[in-house]
């Protein structure tokens, strides 16, 4: 217990310094949209995988991620300044470590995607996140759904991080 008492002031000082100097975790960092356009329409999610849950989940999570981090308004296609498209390259869920008797003891969920933005008026490309990958490890089949969703969340967060840089 004496170590905690001596470390506590140092930890509090470190936390205060980080937050007072403007440091933010990337998942909370504000984003800047191309040409300061804020009215977005999610035109489509290209999902070549056999994962039927993936398309609606990506739609929902991307909307939430951009709203959380920027002055974004999701509107109908006719009102939109920017069209957003998501391309999924691949999704895998596989065992990565075998134990005794060749039984799987560790699994990985992995998703690779990119987010593209274009001008709604003329189709001009405005922004491309590049291919972003999210991975999550899990240890039982019962954790597979949660791990898969976390992999999607990570890939979308990485894509949105690219909007944190000025244009």
Mean pLDDT: 83
CATH class: Alpha Beta
Number of strands: 6
Head-to-tail CA distance between termini: 50 Å
Separate helix tally: 3
CATH topology assignment:
Double Stranded RNA Binding Domain
Taking the sheet with the most strands, its summary is:
6 strands, mixed
Structural class: alpha/beta
Rg from alpha-carbon coordinates: 20 Å
What do you see in this structure?
- The protein has 167 residues and is an alpha/beta fold.
- The protein has one domain (39-164): Double Stranded RNA Binding Domain, CATH 3.30.160.
- 32% of the residues lie in helices and 32% in strands.
- The protein contains 3 helices and 6 strands; from the N terminus they run H-E-H-E-E-E-E-E-H.
- It has helices at residues 2-20, 54-69, 144-161, and strands at 39-46, 73-74, 82-98, 104-119, 125-128, 132-138.
- Strands 1, 2, 3, 4, 5 and 6 form a 6-stranded mixed beta sheet that branches.
- Helix 2 links the parallel strand 1 and strand 2 (73-74).
- The chain is globular.
- It starts with a helix and ends in a 6-residue tail after the last helix.
- The relative contact order is 0.17.
- Mean pLDDT is 83; it is low at 11-26.
Give keywords.
167 residues; alpha/beta; Double Stranded RNA Binding Domain; six-stranded mixed β-sheet; 3 helices; 6 strands
């Amino acid at each position: 217990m004496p170590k905690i008492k001596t470390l506590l002031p140092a930890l509090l000082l470190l936390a205060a310094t980080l937050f007072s100097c403007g440091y933010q975790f990337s998942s909370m960092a504000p984003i800047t949209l191309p040409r300061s356009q804020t009215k977005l329409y999610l035109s489509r999610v290209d999902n070549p995988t056999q994962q039927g849950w993936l398309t609606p989940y990506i739609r929902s999570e991307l909307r939430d991620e951009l709203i959380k981090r920027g002055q974004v308004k999701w509107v109908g296609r006719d009102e939109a300044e920017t069209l957003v498209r998501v391309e999924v390259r691949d999704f895998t869920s596989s065992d990565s470590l075998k134990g005794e008797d060749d039984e799987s003891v560790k699994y990985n969920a992995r998703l690779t995607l990119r987010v593209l933005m274009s001008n709604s008026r003329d189709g001009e490309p405005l922004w491309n996140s590049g291919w972003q990958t999210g991975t999550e490890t899990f240890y039982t089949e019962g954790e597979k759904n949660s791990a898969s969703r976390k992999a999607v969340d990570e890939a979308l967060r990485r894509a949105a991080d690219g909007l944190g840089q000025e244009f």
